[in-house]
Amino acid sequence: MINKDLFVYGIAKKASEKDIENAIEKVLLESTNGLSWLKKGDTVLLKPTLNSNDPYPATTDPLTLKVVAELLHKKGAKVILADQSGIEHVIQDKTGILKGSSQKCFEDSGMNKSGLYFNALEKRGWNSFYKFNKTKAWTKGFYISDIVKNVDHIINLPRVSTHAQAGVTLGFKNFVGLLREDSRLEFHNSGPFKQAINAFAKSKSKTLKTNYVNENNFFEKITEISLATKDKLRLTLFTATKLQTTFGPDKKLMGLFTSYIVEPEIGLVFASSNQVATEALAIAFLILNYKTIPENKKVLQKLLITANGKIKELGKENVWDNLFIKSALKLKLGNKNFDVNYNNVPIKLQNELMNILNNK
After folding, report:
1. Structure pTM?
2. Which residues contact 91 (CB under 8 A, 6 or more apart)?
3. 28 contacts 72 by C-beta, under 8 angstroms
4. pLDDT tens-digit profile of 325-340?
5. More exposed terminus of the chain, fewer Cβ within 10 Å: N or C?
6. What is the pLDDT of residues 264-281, one digit of tens each?
7. Residue 79 to residue 77: CA distance in whole angstroms
8. Sheet with strand 233-240: strands edge to edge
9. Of the candidates 171, 140, 143, 139, which has an alpha carbon nearest to the alpha carbon of residue 155?
């Protein structure tokens, strides 16, 4: 039986690497009832956040990959670590790879410290993606890596960060890394700043389509990617000892302005099979830590939000009004009725998070 509750473990800012490893292991095992769904010989896809070549928290914490993979291996699982970096770093079309390397991003980001073999999706070729049609926002479906069809289980390992286009980039947004370029360009065409993305794609490829109709369903399309993974998704697990609280997804906005990183006095590791539960807590923790940023460090973020026109400043919107969460609830990708199991989290922090979740 899969546990639908949310398990949260607190980690002090000066905690040792071993302490962090223990927290990740504890949360993983408690949230999965000791990996009760796993049988010896099963294949498990670990989906990290490798949007760029930037280190954690712009990408997934390598320590998390290491601990999760080791526990799976001990249970006899075959682990597949796979992703493709964002279009600005890696791009391909039906003629082949046009720019960049997800493998290089993996190495430069420090994720290779996990000691795991990495599968760069672009290396598997244009035809290694299959069409998923069971969608509403995607009127013609989307193309997603066939690894999703071929594994037994999926564990989602995002990081906690803001995002220049989507406001936040958490569990739902992380599955964009499994899409083919044409599908990535299609959903971007319903979102903010699409002109820059389309111009970049046109500069690299003569065959990639960019003139998609703006259906104004950017958030819905991103959330619906989880429809292709939901039957095999066993867990979403966040390590949030560091948070990227402005700009994003990369360390720098347009290569010029550096994202503001907060390292809280008490960081969190949290996990659940309920996608909505983890997404909601990640947003609440972002809101709480965004409040600690000096006002002069928020000026560019506020200008970006105004230019975006589709997102709101952290704390100016109820967690449950976030468009990813609203879409997920409609799609029944999780629910609001979950218990939170805290371990090593001060009561003050628990209350602050629950007040944000309860819109107090």
Report:
1. 0.98
2. 97, 98, 99, 100, 181, 200, 201, 204, 205, 208
3. no
4. 999 999 999 999 999 9
5. N
6. 999 999 999 999 999 999
7. 6
8. 118-120, 78-83, 43-48, 153-157, 233-240, 266-272, 6-12, 340-343
9. 171
